[in-house]
Amino acid sequence: xxxxxxxxxxxxxxxxxxxxxxxxxxxxxxxxxxxxxxxxxxxxxxxxxxxxxxxxxxxxxxxxxxxxxxxxxxxxxxxxxxxxxxxxxxxxxxxxxxxxxxxxxxxxxxxxxxxxxxxxxxxxxxxxxxxxxxxxxxxxxxxxxxxxxxxxxxxxxxxxxxxxxxxxxxxxxxxxxxxx
Length: 180
Hints:
Blueprint: E1 2-5, H1 12-23, E2 26-29, H2 30-37, H3 40-47, H4 54-66, E3 74-77, H5 83-94, E4 102-107, H6 110-120, H7 127-150, E5 155-159, H8 164-176
Helix pairs in contact: 1-8
Protein backbone atom coordinates (compact mmCIF):
# COMPACT_ATOMS: atom_id res chain seq x y z
CA UNK A 1 0.00 0.00 0.00
CA UNK A 2 1.22 3.44 -0.98
CA UNK A 3 -0.40 6.21 1.07
CA UNK A 4 -0.76 9.64 -0.53
CA UNK A 5 -1.37 12.42 1.99
CA UNK A 6 -1.82 16.16 1.69
CA UNK A 7 -4.40 18.93 1.78
CA UNK A 8 -7.17 18.97 -0.84
CA UNK A 9 -5.64 20.35 -4.03
CA UNK A 10 -2.12 19.06 -3.38
CA UNK A 11 -2.54 16.56 -6.22
CA UNK A 12 -3.27 13.28 -4.40
CA UNK A 13 -5.87 12.16 -6.93
CA UNK A 14 -3.82 13.18 -9.95
CA UNK A 15 -0.76 11.36 -8.61
CA UNK A 16 -2.81 8.37 -7.53
CA UNK A 17 -4.31 8.02 -10.99
CA UNK A 18 -0.88 8.38 -12.64
CA UNK A 19 0.65 5.70 -10.42
CA UNK A 20 -2.34 3.41 -10.95
CA UNK A 21 -2.33 3.85 -14.72
CA UNK A 22 1.43 3.52 -15.21
CA UNK A 23 2.04 0.68 -12.74
CA UNK A 24 -1.25 -1.21 -12.78
CA UNK A 25 -2.04 -0.50 -9.11
CA UNK A 26 -5.53 -0.26 -7.65
CA UNK A 27 -6.35 3.34 -6.66
CA UNK A 28 -8.60 3.95 -3.67
CA UNK A 29 -9.61 7.58 -3.23
CA UNK A 30 -11.46 8.10 0.03
CA UNK A 31 -12.69 11.46 -1.29
CA UNK A 32 -14.28 9.81 -4.32
CA UNK A 33 -15.75 7.04 -2.16
CA UNK A 34 -17.24 9.55 0.26
CA UNK A 35 -18.66 11.75 -2.51
CA UNK A 36 -20.40 8.69 -3.98
CA UNK A 37 -21.57 6.89 -0.85
CA UNK A 38 -22.37 9.60 1.70
CA UNK A 39 -25.89 11.00 1.46
CA UNK A 40 -28.36 13.20 3.29
CA UNK A 41 -27.35 15.59 6.03
CA UNK A 42 -23.85 14.07 6.31
CA UNK A 43 -23.29 14.81 2.60
CA UNK A 44 -24.36 18.44 3.08
CA UNK A 45 -21.97 18.79 6.02
CA UNK A 46 -19.18 17.19 4.01
CA UNK A 47 -19.77 19.64 1.14
CA UNK A 48 -19.31 22.46 3.67
CA UNK A 49 -15.85 21.09 4.46
CA UNK A 50 -16.64 19.16 7.64
CA UNK A 51 -14.88 15.85 8.17
CA UNK A 52 -16.89 12.72 8.82
CA UNK A 53 -16.25 10.83 12.05
CA UNK A 54 -13.37 8.38 12.21
CA UNK A 55 -15.85 5.56 12.72
CA UNK A 56 -17.82 6.48 9.58
CA UNK A 57 -14.73 6.75 7.37
CA UNK A 58 -13.06 3.61 8.74
CA UNK A 59 -16.24 1.59 8.23
CA UNK A 60 -16.49 2.68 4.58
CA UNK A 61 -12.79 2.09 3.87
CA UNK A 62 -12.87 -1.31 5.58
CA UNK A 63 -15.62 -2.39 3.16
CA UNK A 64 -13.65 -1.15 0.16
CA UNK A 65 -10.48 -2.92 1.31
CA UNK A 66 -12.46 -6.16 1.50
CA UNK A 67 -13.18 -5.78 -2.23
CA UNK A 68 -9.55 -5.68 -3.41
CA UNK A 69 -6.69 -8.16 -3.37
CA UNK A 70 -4.46 -6.91 -0.54
CA UNK A 71 -1.53 -8.97 -1.81
CA UNK A 72 -1.38 -6.63 -4.82
CA UNK A 73 0.00 -3.09 -4.50
CA UNK A 74 -2.60 -0.37 -4.17
CA UNK A 75 -2.72 3.36 -3.62
CA UNK A 76 -4.63 4.91 -0.75
CA UNK A 77 -5.45 8.53 -1.48
CA UNK A 78 -6.72 10.80 1.29
CA UNK A 79 -6.62 8.39 4.22
CA UNK A 80 -5.78 8.60 7.05
CA UNK A 81 -6.89 12.10 8.03
CA UNK A 82 -6.68 11.65 11.81
CA UNK A 83 -4.34 9.90 14.24
CA UNK A 84 -7.16 7.47 15.09
CA UNK A 85 -7.46 6.52 11.41
CA UNK A 86 -3.66 6.20 11.18
CA UNK A 87 -3.59 3.86 14.18
CA UNK A 88 -6.33 1.72 12.63
CA UNK A 89 -4.36 1.53 9.38
CA UNK A 90 -1.09 0.64 11.16
CA UNK A 91 -2.93 -2.07 13.10
CA UNK A 92 -4.26 -3.53 9.84
CA UNK A 93 -0.72 -3.55 8.42
CA UNK A 94 0.73 -5.13 11.60
CA UNK A 95 -1.91 -7.87 11.30
CA UNK A 96 -0.63 -8.39 7.73
CA UNK A 97 -3.89 -7.46 6.03
CA UNK A 98 -1.61 -5.58 3.58
CA UNK A 99 1.96 -4.29 3.38
CA UNK A 100 2.75 -0.62 3.92
CA UNK A 101 5.11 0.24 1.06
CA UNK A 102 5.35 4.04 1.25
CA UNK A 103 3.87 7.16 2.78
CA UNK A 104 4.09 10.18 0.48
CA UNK A 105 3.26 13.63 1.85
CA UNK A 106 2.38 16.05 -0.94
CA UNK A 107 3.12 19.55 0.31
CA UNK A 108 1.68 22.62 -1.42
CA UNK A 109 1.25 26.25 -0.44
CA UNK A 110 -2.20 27.66 0.23
CA UNK A 111 -2.00 29.86 -2.87
CA UNK A 112 -1.19 26.88 -5.13
CA UNK A 113 -3.97 24.81 -3.57
CA UNK A 114 -6.53 27.60 -3.78
CA UNK A 115 -5.77 28.15 -7.50
CA UNK A 116 -6.04 24.43 -8.28
CA UNK A 117 -9.30 24.00 -6.38
CA UNK A 118 -10.92 27.04 -7.97
CA UNK A 119 -9.88 25.77 -11.42
CA UNK A 120 -11.36 22.30 -10.88
CA UNK A 121 -14.70 23.97 -10.07
CA UNK A 122 -16.35 21.44 -7.77
CA UNK A 123 -19.36 22.64 -5.78
CA UNK A 124 -17.55 22.02 -2.46
CA UNK A 125 -14.52 24.17 -3.41
CA UNK A 126 -15.80 27.44 -1.94
CA UNK A 127 -13.43 29.93 -0.29
CA UNK A 128 -14.90 29.06 3.11
CA UNK A 129 -14.54 25.32 2.56
CA UNK A 130 -10.96 25.71 1.28
CA UNK A 131 -10.00 27.75 4.34
CA UNK A 132 -11.61 25.14 6.59
CA UNK A 133 -9.74 22.30 4.84
CA UNK A 134 -6.44 24.09 5.35
CA UNK A 135 -7.21 24.69 9.02
CA UNK A 136 -8.12 21.04 9.55
CA UNK A 137 -5.07 19.93 7.56
CA UNK A 138 -2.76 21.91 9.86
CA UNK A 139 -4.54 21.00 13.08
CA UNK A 140 -5.52 17.41 12.43
CA UNK A 141 -3.74 15.90 9.44
CA UNK A 142 -0.19 17.21 9.79
CA UNK A 143 0.14 15.61 13.23
CA UNK A 144 -0.36 12.26 11.48
CA UNK A 145 2.92 12.78 9.63
CA UNK A 146 4.68 13.26 12.97
CA UNK A 147 2.79 10.27 14.38
CA UNK A 148 3.94 8.03 11.51
CA UNK A 149 7.53 9.15 12.00
CA UNK A 150 7.32 8.50 15.75
CA UNK A 151 6.05 5.01 14.90
CA UNK A 152 9.14 4.46 12.73
CA UNK A 153 7.35 4.89 9.41
CA UNK A 154 9.39 6.74 6.79
CA UNK A 155 7.49 9.61 5.17
CA UNK A 156 8.64 11.15 1.89
CA UNK A 157 7.88 14.88 1.69
CA UNK A 158 7.30 15.95 -1.92
CA UNK A 159 6.96 19.53 -3.18
CA UNK A 160 3.57 19.27 -4.86
CA UNK A 161 3.88 22.79 -6.27
CA UNK A 162 6.01 21.38 -9.10
CA UNK A 163 4.59 20.17 -12.39
CA UNK A 164 2.52 16.98 -12.09
CA UNK A 165 5.18 15.03 -14.03
CA UNK A 166 8.00 16.25 -11.75
CA UNK A 167 5.98 15.28 -8.67
CA UNK A 168 5.19 11.88 -10.19
CA UNK A 169 8.83 11.25 -11.08
CA UNK A 170 9.91 12.08 -7.52
CA UNK A 171 7.32 9.68 -6.06
CA UNK A 172 8.37 6.88 -8.43
CA UNK A 173 12.06 7.41 -7.59
CA UNK A 174 11.24 7.18 -3.89
CA UNK A 175 9.32 3.94 -4.35
CA UNK A 176 11.76 2.40 -6.87
CA UNK A 177 14.89 3.28 -4.89
CA UNK A 178 13.68 1.06 -2.09
CA UNK A 179 13.38 3.95 0.30
CA UNK A 180 9.87 2.87 1.12
